[in-house]
Design brief:
2 domains, alpha+beta
């Protein structure tokens, strides 16, 4: 075989390899539904899990038997599905053997759950990374596909091709316009809690209603950085279908699984006086009366002198009037506060502050 022919073949194989890598070798390993169940990430301090990735087209097709997405790609996020379509998907998914075996019940996240998972502890405009780095508008490309980086061609190349296209358009009909769309899930860095594509790629539906609409979160590949901020919200009708709108799953333990877990925990808990049981209340966490452990785990409670109990900036209406209680220790008045909440919208929804009763 002549060298030029061999060189052409090698170059073609190299180009094919690069294309396969760029496409993410579309097929997922293993059963798509089992992969979906395995990729649910526990959210620290909360009683729900969030999908590590947006639901992919392969996963939708495995459950529903068809792929309605406008821009195809097995490992790309599914889109062009309505909120009502998502409910049909969830009904079938929760009946799947892999889901039943996991003890999880899948649903869409609420608006507050989505923002909590997106921020991963950050109080800024974007998420926090595992090393503590706070993402900003200038570093958003590390975690998001958005208008500044969604195109795969360099801008100069697109401008050059557009110029050439205009020159020869009178003789030849050509169209070298790049189709900019969403990307395979999981290609960008995850936030501190291991979740990918919370900013950008496709908008994500939530369970939360806003009048006759439903709240959407996260922004998409067509949006500027501001639309991709953790606190930004969009809205759509339950029947709307768009190529920029997909979804991510949330999951909680089924009641049967929770009951089994509680029985096992109760049988394993040391009785007073047994080895391993706390002595004199040592190691016990004091929680406000009327708040379950699961609820109190969502916040960090701390006591402050009552004279410092005036609402801070942004806390208007958070503390009810007369929210100070006499403490036996030292006789000083103390008030229980919720530590700064990272979800401004959720702050406004809190109407009752549970106090520690002494």
């Amino acid at each position: 075989m002549k060298r030029p022919v061999l060189l052409v073949i090698l170059l073609a194989l190299a180009a094919l390899a690069v294309w396969l890598v760029a496409r993410g070798c579309e097929a997922d390993a293993g059963d798509p539904v089992e992969r979906l169940v395995a990729d649910m990430v526990p959210i620290p301090g909360r009683d729900f899990r969030m999908g590590k990735y947006e639901v992919t087209q392969a996963q939708w097709e495995a459950v529903m038997g068809e792929n309605p997405s406008e821009f195809k790609g097995a490992n790309h996020p599914v889109e062009n599905v309505s909120w009502d379509d998502c409910q049909a998907f969830l009904e079938k998914l929760n009946a799947h053997p892999a889901t039943r075996a996991s003890g999880l019940v899948f649903r869409l996240p609420t608006d507050e759950e989505w923002e909590t998972a997106c921020r991963a502890g950050s109080t800024n405009d974007f998420c926090r990374l595992a090393d503590g780095t706070e993402i900003t508008e200038t570093t958003l490309g590390r975690v998001a596909w958005y208008v500044e980086n969604a195109a795969t061609r360099p801008r100069w190349l697109n401008r050059f091709l557009a110029f050439v296209e205009r020159l020869i358009d009178r003789v030849y009909e050509v169209d070298w316009t790049e189709t900019v769309t969403h990307h395979p899930v999981g290609r960008k860095e995850p936030n501190a809690w291991g979740l990918h594509d919370m900013h950008g790629n496709v908008w994500e539906r939530t369970e939360t209603a806003f009048g006759e609409y439903r709240v959407d979160r996260g922004g998409c590949w067509l949006d500027s950085a501001g639309y991709c901020e953790s606190s930004n919200r969009g809205r759509s009708s339950p029947s709307d279908r768009f190529s920029i709108l997909g979804f991510r799953l949330c999951a909680t333990q089924s009641p049967a699984a929770e009951e089994t877990h509680a029985e096992n925990a109760e049988s394993a808990e040391p009785r007073p006086g047994e080895a391993g049981s706390p002595a004199g209340g040592a190691g016990e966490r004091s929680e406000p009366e009327g708040v379950s452990h699961a609820e109190s785990a969502a916040f960090e409670f701390h006591a402050e002198p009552a004279e410092s109990a005036e609402p801070r900036s942004g806390e208007a209406g958070l503390l009810p009037e007369g929210a100070a209680e006499r403490s036996e220790a030292g006789g000083a008045s103390r008030v229980w506060r919720l530590a700064p909440c990272t979800e401004p919208e959720y702050k406004r929804m809190i109407t009752i502050l549970f106090l520690q009763k002494t």
